[in-house]
Amino acid sequence: MDPAQLHNLISAAFKARDNAHAPYSKFRVGAALLSASGAHIAGCNVENASYGAGICAERTAIVKGVSEGERAYTAVVVVSDVPTPTISPCGICRQSLREFCPLDTPVYMVSATYPALAPADGPPPAFLVPDADGGRWPRATDASVIAVLTLEQLLPMSFGPDNLT
Ligand SMILES: [Zn+2]
């Protein structure tokens, strides 16, 4: 994935956030997954008057993708309205991601300031750069906008599909 592709994935997450149904928490979240086939699958949180029936953005994206036949994901973006890159997937979403993502999957947590810095229809921002070590994933040079951790860092010593084979 190059910086332009990551920019598009981040922009897809913000577009989904804008569709969030969050009348109770007022906490809008968007997520976007890069599938192994190259598709971008986005989701938002969808709350319900029966609170327990709500679903997070990350799991919305997962169930959308899986139901369309996308069963493997290689990058994750999470966005919200919080102007710092500090909103990470909740515990149950980390476990759901574990089912369909390798442990080295990067999870990009992006500040709500991003769209103003890098509009969706514009080029990728200068602070997204290719991995200097030749890795597969771009990194962000501005830590006030993007934080990235791997799924394994977010969910250490996890239980996953390989534990049942
Ligand atoms: Zn969640």
Automatic annotation (TrEMBL):
Coiled coil: none annotated. InterPro entries: APOBEC/CMP_deaminase_Zn-bd (IPR016192), CMP_dCMP_dom (IPR002125), Cyt/Deoxycyt_deaminase (IPR050202), Cyt_deam_tetra (IPR006262), Cytidine_deaminase-like (IPR016193). Its EC number is 3.5.4.5. The keyword Metal-binding applies. Pfam families: dCMP_cyt_deam_1. Keywords: Hydrolase, Metal-binding, Zinc. Residues 4-162 form the CMP/dCMP-type deaminase domain. SUPFAM superfamilies: Cytidine deaminase-like. Its cofactor is Zn(2+). It comes from the Eukaryota. It is an enzyme of class 3 (hydrolase). CDD domains: cytidine_deaminase (cd01283). It catalyses: cytidine + H2O + H(+) = uridine + NH4(+); 2'-deoxycytidine + H2O + H(+) = 2'-deoxyuridine + NH4(+). This enzyme scavenges exogenous and endogenous cytidine and 2'-deoxycytidine for UMP synthesis. Belongs to the cytidine and deoxycytidylate deaminase family. This is Cytidine deaminase.
